[in-house]
Structure formats: C-alpha cells, structure tokens
Amino acid sequence: MMRIVALIAALTATGCLPATPDPAPEECRADACGPSRTAAWQMFLRDARHSGRSSAAPPSTTPRVRWTFRAADAFHAAATVAADGTLYVGSHDGSFRALSPAGVELWSAKTGPIHATAALRDDGVIYVPSESEETSFLFALNANGSERWRFPVAGEVHSSPTIGPDGSVYFCGHNGNLYALGPDGKLRFEREIGECHTSPALSDDGRTVYVGAESTQKLHAVRSSGEIAWSFDAGSEIQSSAAVAADGTIVFGTDGGLIFALRSDGAKRWELDAKSPVASSPVISAGRAGGSGGCAPGVVMIGARDGRFHALSHEGAELWSFETHSSISYSSPAIDRDANVYFASRDGKVHALDCEGRLRWEVATEGMIATSSIAIAADGTLYVGAADGRLFALGQ
C-alpha cells in the first residue's frame, strides 16, 4: 500500500497526474466564493454558461436615457449589477468604479486600463481584469473597493473572468494561456491554448471549460483539472465567446462567418454561414410558455459585422434576421424574461426586438458602441457603455 501511495505522489509531482486542488479557504465554505446567487447580472453574459438571460422585464415602450456617467476614456466592458442595483464597471481610463443605481460614483479603484467585464462573487468580492502590453493583473477587490489580492499575467487580458461553482476563476490572455485561480488568488492550473480574447463558458456542472482561441482557431474543452478533453478546429479565428445551452450544446461564432453548435463531446451538431464575420457572442433563449418559432426554447440569437442580427433554431435553421444598417462588432445581446432581445450596433443604437424579430423600439445614444455589451438590472434598467467614455442607463 505504501508503494502505491509513493507512486501516486511521484506521478503527481512529475505532472503525469493532476494535482489535487487545495481545500477551499475557510471564508469560502457554504458557496460564498461561487458566483453571486442574487445579483441581477453577475458576470459577462450574466452567468457561467453565458446564457445572457435576465428574469427582469425592461421597458416595453421606448425608454429614455435616465442618466449617463462619463469616464475619461472608453467603456469597452459591460456592467456587472448587484442585487441592490449597484453597478460595477471598468473603463479604459484605468479606473474600476462602483456606481449607485442613480449613476453616482460610490468609489473607484486604480487598476490600469480595463477591457473586460468584472465578475461578482457571492460574498461581494469582485474579480477585475486589467490590461497592459507588459503585465496585466486579475484583481480581487472587496465590496468597498479595497484590494484583496492581484494575480500577474504577461501581456494583455481582454478575457472576462468566469466564476465556477467551486469558486475557481477562469480567464485567458493574449499570451496564449488559460488560467484557473482559486478564491485566494493561487494558481490552480495554467494551460496553453493559443492567443485568446474570449471569456470562458462552463458546463452546467462546472467541470468543463469551453474557450475559443484566436491564433489556433480552435474551441477547446478543458476539464476543471486542467486537461484538454477535446479541441474543435473552426477553420478561422474565434473572437466570439461560447454559450452553453441547457442540453449542453456549445454555440459560438467565427471570423470566417460560420456559427457552430457542438455537442458536449466536441462533435459538430450544425453550422450556419452568416456570410459575415461574427465577433459578437451568442445568447440562448428560454423561450415563452408554449412558444414556437423564434419564441421556442433554445433559440440562438447572435449579431454579425454586416449589421444583421440572427435568430437560429436549436437545430440550426435561420428563423429570422433583422437589419440594423450598422455593424455589430463585439457587443453581445441580452434576453429578458419574455424572450425579447436587446443589443447594440456600432452606430450607437440600442435595439429591442420581440422573439419573432419585430422591432419594439430603438434608442440612439449618439456614442459608438463597439465592444460593451448590454446588462439588465433587476428593475429592468438597461446599461451599456460607449467608446466616447459614456455609460448609459436606459429605463422609464
């Protein structure tokens, strides 16, 4: 028996077996370090599966701009919204801020330029990625903005962090590595996948990480232990973050214009040619009770650079498309409780469509929206940032 124990220890030390994760810190018992269970919008595209779905009901008629907040540089990131309505958002001006629901700054922390969306832990700790050509950091900030810890990464980070159910934090870097950190900031694993801008999505059980790489043109499935389970060659660069459907189907777009749906074992389920590069990330609708067509469960909604916004069935058939007459770049959509969808185009317009593709309303913000995505608060307020440094709150 002692020989077996010694052999296992030796294999682990040489990297032939994955190391056993460190036990969770005492502060993280009772799921305190998992993703927030009460926040309205706790990370990029709301949750670890990137469903982009809210239980709120935004305005059914044309909203007004309730307020704007101006930073000294662009808002590339989306807002993260806590249960009490507090917004957490970073700007390219080097500051990460907490704002009240009325748009009043509560505090700011100097982090360096920010391109990616923060993630909110259940105990109120916020994970904030900064970017620098030399050394970037993933910060863990307390709810009052004080620094808890920081983890250094060589090169830029545009990847929004995703929190797993066990408290692991996943993100990737331009240096080609996928990182998994524990709630205490200690490295759990580092896996080379290729230059990466996307935000990792997780399987429903949190045991598999799905992340696309730009340089390798592959969508990787990485086990929570750090091993690559499989890789899918998409044939062109991937800047669209994957979304995971309720049945485990993984959906993402490519710069070549193809939208793919994969099974959880990596086999291709379907593909559709959008005939234009797709850098925006998809969201997956829960549909309406008794709904069919675009209102059925599992409908994929995604925008393309030619300005068309697509709704695809769970089987990959195009149900409808909507022409915005302006490019949809990296900005990604959001869906409300009634399966209505909200998204922004590069000309600064925010569009609201019903699940059959009919225009409900649109608002011109007069600011270019290229990378910031829609976030929905519990009261239905919509938040989106612009390249001119303004953050917009849309509501009644």
How would you characterize the overall build of this protein?
The structure is a single chain. Helix content is 3%, strand content 36%. The protein has 396 residues and is mostly beta strands. The longest helix has 12 residues, at 2-13. The radius of gyration is 20 Å and the shape is globular.
In short:
By secondary structure, the chain is mostly beta strands.
Defining traits:
single chain, mainly beta, Methylamine Dehydrogenase, Chain H
Uncertain spans: 1-24
Spatially, the strands of the biggest sheet line up as: 1-32-31-30
Class per helix and strand makeup = mainly beta
Overall geometry comes to globular
Number of strands: 32
CATH homology group? YVTN repeat-like/Quinoprotein amine dehydrogenase
Number of helices: 1
Whole-number total of structural domains: 1
CATH architecture grouping? 7 Propeller
Largest sheet, in brief, is: 4 strands, antiparallel
Q: Examine the coordinates and then state which fold CATH places here, giving the name of the CATH topology.
A: Methylamine Dehydrogenase, Chain H
What percentage of residues falls in helices of 4 or more residues? under 10%
Strand % is 35-45%
Indicate the radius of gyration in whole angstroms.
20 Å
In round numbers, the mean pLDDT is: 92
Terminal Cα separation, in Å?
69 Å
